[in-house]
Amino acid sequence: MSSLFTAPDGLPRCGWSASAPDFLRYHDEEWGYPVGDDIRLFEKVCLESFQSGLSWRTILDKRENFRAAFAGFDYNEVAKFGAADVERLLQDKGIIRHRGKIEAVINNAACARELVAETGSLAAFFWSFEPKPEDLPEPQTTSTSPESVALSKALKKRGWKFVGPTTAFAFMQAMGLINDHARGCICREKAATAREAFAVPQMKPAA
């Protein structure tokens, strides 16, 4: 949905941010702003995988519960989780109790450790898939892109799970690799300014 709505402060925002009470704050303070922190990036990949087939509102409402359940999404810690942790998490009513997705987070944590050893950081790897400005689609008109397809393939090649092209695209939107704020939304220019000031992490040289 690319339409705008007028927020309580009288200024225009992306239309989707009016659809739930917590969405406006998430839209204004997080969505579309560049992120270079590995823990936040890993968290977002995991939460987007949990969202598959569900609404973001469901995930956002449970985000703090997810953080508590998955050691703050510190992938070094989550990679140590075993079968007992899976069973524990399946009993946790505060999160989405989906065995496949829970196991995917643990699997992906181990893959994240390997990826950091390979590239230097998750941020360096993910930001290498940022599309060129001229390749960006009109805001909020698509749910995948060539870059999200490429990112999905690269992750799956390295053993990651529940990281399809649509999940990868949603991740890229949220983490600022794509500025998908609607034209006219007051946050579109703010996100663009933040991106200009953001230093893209670089991958370490190949050994």
UniProtKB/TrEMBL annotation:
Coiled-coil ranges from the UniProt annotation: none
Highest taxon in the source lineage: Bacteria
Pfam families, alphabetized: Adenine_glyco
Record-linked InterPro entries: Adenine_glyco (IPR005019), DNA-3mA_glycosylase (IPR052891), DNA_glycosylase (IPR011257)
This protein's name: DNA-3-methyladenine glycosylase I
Record organism: Leisingera caerulea
